[in-house]
Amino acid sequence: MLERLTAFFGNPTGYTTPLPEADAAHAMGALLVRAAKADEAYLFEEIAIIDKILGQRHDLNPVEAAKMRAECEVLEKSIPETDDIAAILEHAISTDEKEATLLALWRVVYADGIKHDEEDRLLHHIEEVLGVSATRAKELQKQAAT
Predict the structure, then answer these.
(1) What mean pLDDT comes out for the span 108-133?
(2) Of 39, 43, 50, 46, nearest to 101 (Cα)?
C-alpha cells in the first residue's frame, strides 16, 4: 500500500513541465527566486514581492505574474550556477536594467525583514557578474532597505 501511495504522489505518469526559455526576463526572475532561497527559506513575503516585481516589470496581472514566477522557479532549479543565470542578463540588458535588477534583488532579500550573510554574499557576487560598481550597488542596497 505504501508503495502505491508513494507512486501516486511521486509523478507516476512521468510527466514533466518543459523548461521555460532562458531569456532575460526569466533569468531575472530566476535570480529573484535564487535570492529569496539563499537563506534556505522561501517565504510568502518573498514570493509576494517577486510576483509584484515581475508584474510591474513585464506588465502582468497577478495571475500572469504568479505563472511567470513558477516558470522562473523551474529555471532557477535547473541552472545550478548563479553565474550562468546572471550571464544571460550580463549581455542582454542595459546598465539601467542591471541596476533595476539589483535593486529588485535587494528588495526580495529585505522582504522577510531579516538579512542573512548568505543573501549578502550572493547579491554582491551577482553585482560583480552584472558589472555594477560597488559604490552604485551600495546605493541600491540602501534604497531597497528604506
Answers:
(1) 90
(2) 50
Cell readout for 6 is 508513494
- Residues contacting residue 104 through CB under 8 Å, at least 6 positions apart: 28, 32, 53, 57
pTM of the predicted protein model:
0.82
pLDDT of residue 145: 87
What pLDDT does 17 receive? 47
**C-alpha of 131 from chain center:** 18
Q: Are 128 and 74 in contact (CB under 8 A)?
A: no
With 0-12 / 13-18 / 19 or more C-beta atoms within 10 angstroms meaning exposed / middle / buried, residue 135 is: exposed
